[in-house]
Design goal:
Length: 217
């Protein structure tokens, strides 16, 4: 490889790294490497110098890092056809309020295995397509889509004031015959998904009635 070509290659890589860092809005983290494989782009992330990390529970900046966990992987939106995978070794911080906790990730919720950007895109598409169709579109499995939609609905209920519900509809989603996997509750008037519950229907529906309908047991 000629020196010029090598220079250009390095320059392009730096541009991609900068682009991803900006897209993910990293401040205390940085992109150290971007590798392309046949199936995906692997984006390696590391802490940026001694920048302070935030507690994953209360989001307060913490002075001390307790330890470094083993590498985790997050699925992100695709770049053209190639899905992005983020790789990072999470730190556990010593939070003055919460004790030793896993740090806050600017790109994902603490529990999530996909980035916030991908889960938002999935939740939006799942309103238009079937969950199977959405899963296919994003190269995820059905269960990941179900988890994302469930979290999105929970988030929506917590953060948005809803008008009173007059007509509800309930449905059960099963993967195999006789095996109920999720219970979903709709506002039939406005045609929005209100609530997604686990396979234990009775337990799942109870909080919905007490919270949403104002009926107390
Ligand atoms: Zn904390």
């Amino acid at each position: 490889m000629s020196p010029t070509k090598e220079y250009e290659r390095t320059r392009t890589e730096v541009l991609i790294e900068t682009f991803i860092r900006k897209q993910l809005r990293l401040k205390a983290h940085t992109v150290t490497k971007v590798e392309e494989t046949d199936e995906c782009m692997l984006v390696s992330i590391d802490r940026l110098g001694k920048r302070l990390l935030r507690c994953g529970v209360c989001r307060q900046r913490c002075l001390e890092v307790h330890d470094i966990r083993r590498e985790r992987e997050w699925r992100d939106l695709s770049m053209r056809k190639l899905p992005l995978k983020l790789l990072y070794r999470p730190r556990r911080v010593e939070c003055p309020r919460c004790g030793v906790r896993v740090e806050d990730f600017p790109w994902a919720e603490p529990w999530a295995r996909v980035t916030t950007a991908l889960s938002t895109a999935v939740a939006v598409l799942a309103r238009e397509l079937s969950w199977q169709g959405t899963a296919r579109e994003y190269g995820l499995n059905w269960k990941s889509v179900a988890t994302i939609v469930k979290r999105a609905v929970q988030y929506g209920l917590k953060h948005r004031a809803r008008p009173p519900v007059h007509v509800i509809g309930m449905d059960e989603v099963s993967r195999r015959k006789g095996q109920v996997y999720l219970t979903v509750v709709y506002d039939l008037e406005r045609r929005v998904l209100l609530w997604v519950g686990d396979d234990r229907t009775e337990e799942a529906v109870r909080p919905f009635f007490t919270k949403e309908m104002g009926k107390r047991r």
